[in-house]
Queue: 2 jobs
Job 1
Amino acid sequence: MDNLRLLLDGFANVASPGNLLVALIGVVAGTAVGVLPGIGPAMTVALLLPVTYGMDPTQAFILFAGIFYGGMYGGSTTSILLNTPGESSSVITSIEGNKMAKAGRAAQALATAAIGSFVAGTIATLALVLVTPVVVRFAISLGAPDYFAIMLLAFVAVSATLGGSRVRGFASLLAGLVIGTVGIDGVTGQQRLTLGIPQLADGIDVVVVAVGIFAVGEALWVAAHLRRKAVPVVPVGRPWMGAEDWRRSWKPWLRGTALGFPFGALPAGGAEIPTFLSYATEKRLAERPEEFGNGAIEGVAGPEAANNASAAGTLVPMLAIGLPTTAVSAVMLAAFESYGIQPGPLLFERQPTLVWTLIASLFVGNLLLLVLNLPLAPAWARLLRVPRPYLYAGILFFASMGAYAVNAQPFDLILLLLLGLLGFGMRRFGLPVLPLIVGVILGPRAELQGRRSLQLSGGDLSGLLGGPVSYTIYAVILVLLAWPLIKRLRRG
Amino acid sequence: MSRDRAQYGVCALLALTGALVIADALRITHLTSSNDPIGPRPVPILLGACLLAVAVAYGIDVARGGRGEPEAGEDVDLTTRVDWRTVLLLIGAFLLNAALIDWLGWVISGTILFWGSAFALGNRHHVRGLLIAVALALITFYAFAIGLGVNLPAGVLQGIL
């Protein structure tokens, strides 16, 4: 087992005192920022990007692993203690979680979420270790037409299957693809959509797009509709669980993990479907189904495990193919790129130390979270009372700092504001933001692979079709696109 | 609930973007070579055409009564109307920072940004807001610019900080 040795080397890398400190900082910062209301995991990662600018890549990724799981956990704490849905992936957790909290069982809800996240995160990261090398071996055999097809699949999947409206999904995707086209064309050196502005020649930095859409857009949107009366926060002590809670939680944790990981690893991943499926499963299997809707612990344990397992699952396509399928992994990919590191099958060959250190630090971060979060929960709960003017002013402050620091030019701040206004408009009109981010990141690469395929075929469009792998993918795309039609036919 | 007619504005914006993208693509010299048989033009033209198509589909969806749900959130109260005064004040604070950052430096412009944004959002503890703003700006400057070597300008305070 060559990979096992590499993973152990990864652990050895993380285990130095300096790196452990970095992991600890990542977990604490990730949780603290993730707990803040209005800040979901994707915004947490985007806002904390500048923290890594001065670090060497290895330390930066140890920090990221901590921020990643910390941000996820922070988000679910918010949804349990506040009765308003935040991130879509923790909506399901909040259904039963907040009911439990109101019934005086906040400590147990937080405990089952924390321990469930740990169990799911650990199992799913193990699965990641086993599955990713297989995917890498498969991905290495793929040619340019296959990559092109995979990226088209990702475009269609994030636009057409998530969220309610396909036309809004595609509108968002196209906006992202257009933003991704801005700049000098890498092959011919021609300027596209730069409008004669020299600062646009290098294109629009993905970090600026992510921070603009997630942080500035969200802050402006909340500011426009700010709740003037504070939402009541359920007081909480130290999380703990009795024997009965353990007995009722462990099976939902495992079932949630089993549902979450595969869904996360699929190119159309995301946590909404597995958390919902987990909730439905637990409701059906529960000994006391009547408790559902009134604070059933299974309804927190299962979805929360599914949420975390699917988050680990999204790292499989992200690391092995360079394919982001959720907002968080899209921002992580942007971070990789800012280090000049290109995720994909070659990453495992060229930078094995980096990848395996990242994976090892996922395990470490997960353990640190469990150790930290049980005693620190009351402190996190206090963060929910941050005065809102300071909270959203702080988001704009850190967003500006992060965007300016990318290229040290005030022009990026103007761009950030414009992207923030775009994010504001998208929230107002119910356009999903994920397709846009995926379009910005994958658009240029899809164009590159497409043009490479056509180069091989001398410009003949058949060059895009490639071999059996891409045939299969195009078939899947057709089914996804035709799905509403198929459904109507079956009903009619 | 009445129809959300502002959505037609989104259609118009999509169509306009599509037209702009196509116009820009037609402006590019058409360069092809054996290494790159299609050149830089087809992709933007395709994107522009898709944008026009989506604009039409969006318009049909709206005409049929389709509407996007505004995003909910922990601090979002969707029963209120958009509070433009707050939004415009925030944009003002944001632009002020962009205009002043290279000249006055991050510590001063960042302070203005935080204090101004907090004011726009309804903070009425002006002194406390100012103290937090100055503290944040100083901490981030020393931690990031000096500690981690991140690009943040010192501006007029160069030599003092």
Job 2
Amino acid sequence: MTLISLIRKEFQQLRHNPFTIYTILFYVFVITLVQPLLLTLDVKSVTVAVVDKDGSELSRRVTESIGHTEQLRVTYSGADMHAANVMLDEGRTHCIIEIPAGFERNIVGRRTGLAEPQRINISTDAVNSMRGIQGTAFVTGCITSAIKAYAVEKGMDMGQGDEVIETLLYNPSQDYRNFVIPTVFFLFITYICGIFLTAAVCDEKMRGTIEQINVCPISRSTYVWSKILTFTIISMMAFYVDMGLIAAVYDVVPNGGIVAMSLAIFMFSVCVCAIAITAGNLAANTIQAVMAVFFINYIMQVMSGFLTPIECMPEWLQPVTMFIPLRYTVAMLRNGYLKGANAIDMWQQLAFLVSLTSVCVLFAVRSYKRVEN
Amino acid sequence: MTLILLKKEFLHVLRAPATLLFLFAVPVLFLLLYGYAISQDVNSVKVACVIEGNVNDAHSVTQRLEHNHIFEYKGVLGSVAEGERMMHNNQLDGIVVIRRHDKGLCIDGSNPIVASATTVYLKAALGMSVNKRDELFNTRMLYNPQLLSAYNFIPGIIGLVIIAIFGLLTSSAIVQEKVNGTLDVITISPMRLWQLFLAKVLAYFLLTAAVTLVLMILSRMLFDVPINGSIPALIMVLLIYILVTLCIGFLISAVADNEVNAFGAHNIFAQTLSLLLSGAMFPIENLPDMVQPVCKLIPTTWCVDALRKLMIQGQGMADVADHLLVLSAMCVVLIILSVYKLKKTI
């Protein structure tokens, strides 16, 4: 009963600060919805400059075939290598393809063994290494198939490679978006349950309203749970609303495991709230509390494997991720959304998440002291 | 007079040693975490084999997988279904199906980065035709021949850290004085408004510049990120960018009436938008066309692009003239806005 009236008090405090409400709405309706468009580390668009010194039918075909692919866009096509280099330096193109003079003749001659093989030069801007690798792969693949098609037409044998049959499970379109969508919910939790809650805790201290709570017959854990549950209720609601919105906008529907995912979201927001309350209680001023929470949030984001796989991290760092609650949340959301795994499949993750959360809540309750020392 | 105020601002910071610790420790830890943890280099792939039918040379294939240090080889499984079950529990990234006449790869596609790496590694290890076309091409990776993720991410992190930490600090700077009531003390003193503003900006500016210097040195020492381009240009870009982020903080601080709102506003406008839209983490060219103009409004976009040009690509002052111009313009607009807003508040 006390708990319920305390939760009502929290909601009233939120209502009296309309800015908080706007921020929550902004996160639920704008940030979460826009995120799937933004969070892509895969390579979708590579700009290419084709320097054609050959000017033959084959080189024209190669240029055309590059223009026809989805990922490559031709920004320059001509014979001036210098112009292409300038474009690369200015960032207007990612890749230069230089087709040497006499290339077509060379391809024809190579079959009869008369000519030394002549090569196409490909220079790629590799500041972004992923784009460098994948861009080069797109370009070489594209040119190879253009040359093969030309060779077949002219009745030449270019030699066949072994055929490999590839099957991709779970995310056959290899869309990074499907990989990211399950995880867009937690950014909301880390900001609303984290930053806002810790600032609110400090605010009560600074305004002195905490003194009123201190003299009320409320146990420490009731007070802490009232704050935790308020924000957890908000994040659960946000989760369901966003799940519906994402299904409507992006057509990505979970394959099952709603219960498991709800549990993951619930546990994670309790955990973040507990961390925020601990920081708010321990800090000397608001800026310290916010910085601490903010930093913990960042550690969680980076180490949870939500952006880049945990397998890619250095080996000494990988065991540390065991203590990151977000790691289990992300794993559960992904397995639920993409593979439809249920709570029983993921009992290990759930167990880890529950135990980390309990530790955090324990800290939150212990850190709330009525007497300043 | 400004000097006295400057001293006061430093005292604010120095008398809360925990805050000062945060100011240096948090950016450094950020750099370390992002530098080490954000990596797209896949260096351990879990694979297993399934042999279908009577295959003579299966042994040679399994041995090749076993002796390749990239793979964590899990042995020969009874059936593909068994492998898929293991994949379901994240115990496998790929299955090689060895048949009499061909080989099949079955790859967990739920993480596209791991999936594409797994495919390439397996094909190479099995001696399949990934390199047949090599004789046609000379490929060259410019600027980042070792293909390190750090070259791309470190300039981004420096841009993000400055706006995240120091924008946060200044966004509370004036609000705190409002809430504590100390702003009233200053208003009744014979201090001019611009002096107050200048003192605050200068204090935080020096602090931020010091931290930025530490970050640059660390990124050079730990991650071998070079500074190939013009150093004066680099310093100019960073200093103007620092000024812009501080002014964003001051503007928020002048507008907000309590710290909860100030941090909330900083959170959305400075931090989340910079993280998502600046190209520091996520390439801008992947964004939908209608979002791309919005990116140009974010100062971090310009800073990170200039840093990449100057540090990695080795370009000079002339190549980042646009960036300097845009950042300076943003700076002037923000200063005018925040002084105007502050005048109204007082």
